[in-house]
Amino acid sequence: MLDPLASLGRAGLSVLASLGRAHLLLANILAGLPSLLIRPRLLLAQLYGIGVLSLLIIVVSGLFVGMVLSLQGHYVLSQFGAAESLGVMVAASLVRELGPVVTALLFAGRAGSALTAEIGLMKATEQLSGLEMMAVDPIKRVLTPRFFGGLISMPLLAAMFSAVGVLGGWFVGVGLLGVDDGAFWGQMQNKIDFEEDVINGVIKSLVFGLVVTWIALYEGYDATPTSAGVSRATTRTVVQSALAVLGVDFILTALMFGG
Amino acid sequence: MARIRLSEILVGAFMALGFVALFFLAMRVSNLSTATTGEGYTLKAHFDNIGSLRVRAPVSMAGVRLGRVEAIEFDQATYQAVVTLRIAERYDQIPSDTFANIFTAGLLGEQYIGLDPGGSPDMLTDGDRIEFTQSALVLEQMIGQFLLSKAEDGGE
Predict the structure, then answer these.
(1) ipTM here
(2) Nearest CA in chain B to A48
(3) Nearest Cα residue to A141 out of A49, A220, A53, A43
(4) Which domain, by its residues, includes B140?
(5) SS3 of residue A12 by DSSP
(6) B14, B25, B28 ranked by CB distance to A52: nearest
(7) Judgement on whether residues B28 and B49 belong to the same structural domain of the protein
(8) B13: which chain A residues are within 8 Å (Cβ-Cβ)?
(9) Which of A231, B1, B43, B86 is deepest in the core (most CB within 10 A)?
(10) Where is the Mce/MlaD domain (chain B) (predicted)?
């Protein structure tokens, strides 16, 4: 009779324990920063795997998102005779929201899942235990470079997404729909504030980079060391990163622009 | 060795591209290149009603932007709005009897401050107050006056 109650309690405790392990892992990862600074070459390899290889999908998506924004925005704005504000609309939505958020979602799918699968497989094939046997801390050697690789790549990728998106919006708005070139850029520069919009967007993308990389590394490190376990962990990374990014985005937006 | 060199070059290009994108957002998309904060001098103007004027709204003369609204405060003694304007350094020939109006850009656009130059030989300097001001036109008040005058016409 008390079985349902017990299973509810077990579920609650396991969630708490998992949260606790995630935070301990983050603390251990951050503690590995000094040894990473001694061997920056480890970071280089991760910047290549996480940043450079994500470049193509980010740039192409940014271009198309900017072009679609411009088409849709022009349709609505021209009904109010405000088609000149197209630049503001495209730039504000990209810099404030779509740049960081869509980049983070793509980043979770492209880089986050790869990180989880890689570390989960390292665990399943006992490479992590092997490192430990050789008195090498696997967290410092394997996880810390990946964490900072993600943390550095994400804002750069988001900035490229926004910049390419604005150019795509300019191409459609000015090139195809005939919005005035001067008004497009002029109104944009008038309305988009460097600190209020651009810097807040960069802060957002930094936070998303931390959240996505952290979830990916934790899921990989905590995965059940079997093929099924790694597969489940990879799925969880993508789902939880997406939910976390959208949730955190609401909180950050409310803090930055809500007041 | 060649592989490491190649990945070094690619990472370098990636980071450079990222910073170029940030620079593009800063200079071309946002107002960093035209920002006047911290430079130039400030003027004050008292308005009975500023409508929906906001901080950072443009201040212009003859349609050319000279500066921005830096701060909006409320004076409890006179029940007026005190608007601080920051004007760019190079526009230092604004006569002391200049008239400050609050205009609206377009029918539904944002409000800005338009300056009409006076004829005085004295120029405004840092911290001076613009004496002559015209409040914002509030649409509801205009409609109210219009209806009132219509009603008076109808009564005769």
Answers:
(1) 0.78
(2) B11
(3) A43
(4) 40-144
(5) helix
(6) B14
(7) no
(8) 52
(9) B43
(10) 40-118
